[in-house]
Amino acid sequence: MTWPGFAVSLTVDVDGVHGLPAGGVGTEHRLSLRSEREYGVARGLPRIAAVLARAGAAATFYVPGAVAAAHDEAIAALGEAGHEIGHHGHLHLRPDELDTGAQLEELASGAAALSMVSPRPVTGYRAPGWELTAVTLGALPPHGITHDSSLMGDDRPYLLRAAEVWELPVHWSLDDAPHFATGGGPEALLEVWLAELREAHAEGRHVTFTMHPEIIGRPHRLVVLERLIEAALSRGAWIAPHSAVVEQLRGAAA
Ligand SMILES: [Zn+2]
Q: What residues sit around ligand 1, an ion, with C-beta below 5 angstroms?
């Protein structure tokens, strides 16, 4: 199945303090470490939302259940603004580091917490650390999940037929975290992302970009998101949340 048109999904992983290793457990005494994560929700998130609102662009925010519970008003506001809220575990524990029971618990607890804040049913999932397992993948449909965004097996959406879940693939080069973690500047990241955008346009396909509020939400880095949206719109891209893309894919596959 080839995506029949040029489309862009902007995705934001709102990990909060749970984005720290082991879901942040054991870091309670490390105020500096945790404060950078708290900045993400308090300051980075509204900045990103403002850029999206100015452009009239809807995004997908992947949120751990525990973050949604702790910041229910902020996350609910994203849903009310027309963005998709996606499942990103509960404590942001990597599925590959959990036994079967703990993986199922992460899914169930996250789904319950997100259902309290999302104005629409949650139908998307992204594994913490992009470490999807067969156990977690198989357990997604019973939770109403129709699409995942954790794998890298293609640069077009593809169907994980055994689980009847659409995959909207990711890649480390299209994620703000590795670039800025290794000291890269905004201009260098923008250059890579615009190059990928040009190729997606030329190939008439869908592409997903991944961001984090505590990373790209720093004021001097937001230009990357602003310019990416400008370039996408100028090339006639359909900027859409993952759920909307999957609706189109299901229609095309029917
Ligand atoms: Zn995450």
A: 13, 15, 128
